[in-house]
Amino acid sequence: MLSIPCPAPLRSRPFVFLIIFSHLVHAGPLLGPKVSLPPGRHKIIILDEADSMTSAAQQALRRTMEIYSSTTRFALACNISTKIIEPIQSRAAILRYSRLSDEQILTRLKHVCAAEEVSYSDDGLEAIIFTAEGDMRNALNNLQATTSGFGHINQTNVFKVCDQPHPTTVRTIVEHCVKGETGSAVRLVRALWGTGYSSSDIIGTLFKVTKAYDMPEALKLEFLREIGFTHMKIADGVNSLLQLLGLTSRLCQKVEVEQQ
């Protein structure tokens, strides 16, 4: 089995992919002897981050897949399946995997820490799980980066490496919003903005904290609805501080309406 990551310089060069894959499926790996498999056995080529390839590169790959379909099986790993061209999708069996649960990530992180003799605290692993968003690769990358930078896994070190707004600060903002304390919430948002975090960083953490916050279900849905609308505006390019302050004010207004 051969796994090939997709380096950025090659993603826009379909002829390079055509040459590489033609060589792999016809003559074997780029390094090492040629391998002839018995009838009924297939070579397996795994292409990671396939959704980063351009349409032209995917068209070149499609032709190669057709030519060597009798001897080779191709596996394309991607995050967004809609970025894979339709001719490839129609020839493939699409398998979708959900995000890992926090318990699954925690179990694996503890196993890695024990195997690599990494010192950690419980709040440090919780911080890694929070930043990973269900992605084991992100979790392991953050674990390695924090260990390389500080030698110990704790909450403070993890958020320094991942450079995300601290959930405790964002949680305090949510608490003020739930209490209807607009002035206090706005001051904290201004302070968080002043530390250099972007709108997308702040609102992404705000969404995750709000989703886990203990509040009436109807109020939580209203909060998430407003956060979602603001996130959409920020994604469209309107990413000023004014958007965050407006969101904070609307969240506080939702509480006042609920109380009435």
UniProtKB/TrEMBL annotation:
Signal peptide stretch: 1-27
Replication factor C C-terminal domain mapped to chain residues: 165-249
Domain of life: Eukaryota
GO CC terms in record: DNA replication factor C complex; nucleus
Sorted UniProt keywords: ATP-binding, DNA replication, Nucleotide-binding, Signal
Record-linked Pfam families: RCF1-5-like_lid, Rep_fac_C
SUPFAM superfamilies registered for this protein in UniProt: P-loop containing nucleoside triphosphate hydrolases, post-AAA+ oligomerization domain-like
Molecular function terms from GO: ATP binding; DNA binding; DNA clamp loader activity
Any one GO biological process: DNA repair
InterPro entries xrefs: DNA_pol3_clamp-load_cplx_C, DNA_Rep/Repair_Clamp_Loader, P-loop_NTPase, Rep_factorC_C, RFC_lid
Family under the similarity heading: Belongs to the activator 1 small subunits family.
The name this protein goes by in its record: Replication factor C C-terminal domain-containing protein
Organism of origin: Odontella aurita
Species lineage: Eukaryota, Sar, Stramenopiles, Ochrophyta, Bacillariophyta
